[in-house]
Amino acid sequence: MVKTTNNNIDTMSRKLSIQVSLNGLSFCSALVNNQEIIALEHQNFGIQLTPEQVLDKIKYNFNFNKNLKYDFESIEVIYQNDLYTVVPQPLFDEKFLKEYLRYNTKVLSNDFIAYDTLNQHDLITVYVPLINVNNFFFDTFGAFTYKHSTTILMNSLLAQEKNSESTSVFVNICNIRFDLIVINKGNLLLCNTFMYDTKEDFLYYLMFTTEQLGLNPEEFELIFLGEVSDDSDFFTIAYKYIRNIRFGKRHKNIKLTEDLNDIQPHEHYALLSHF
User: Considering the domain boundaries, does residue 102 fall inside one?
Assistant: First the structure.
């Protein structure tokens, strides 16, 4: 899917965000002066690639994708994977990064581990970025920033729910995986990512997790984000078991060019929420 605009804006300063996973890439560029989103592109690989193959895809795009042929004022890389965990900030110690991850993911001895700080919410996201991708951006562009996608999700959703008196269950649907974030009265209860092959896999993880948290499907609200619509299998099967379902929207209003106005408020949530 390619979304771009034909406006004559080539001389204006831009910033770029790239969401990277082993299954796909998303690119989004915005004008610096007014934060207007002027190009958005998503590429689904269809299969899970190796980190080396993902880097080849990134290099190819920077060589041949016209939306990437600019001198960007800033670049941010967003890593989307299940190689992460969330740690309460009072319990966090930088010396134990591998210890935080070893209980729910396989960490290799040569893995580089990074972390993001959510100061307003006293949370730390500890994760494994793709070091070869980081090296490429550093060697090619010099300064750039990077984050984990769940950092952006949690930051946006917790701000959105800060005054809520209820329980909200957010599912961010992506290709072969979905993020599950549960917030109760403005506090994070759970943030996890599950791999799925079928809609039944999705339903199993959703219902099992909410049951373990003691949530009643007649009471909590299920909020869909990401690659999902009201006629999708995920929405249909969830609606059979959960009473309150709706689509989410970004915490901030995003300014989109006319050519991008068909993008729904729940789509590309992490990629667009930090603008």
Answer: no
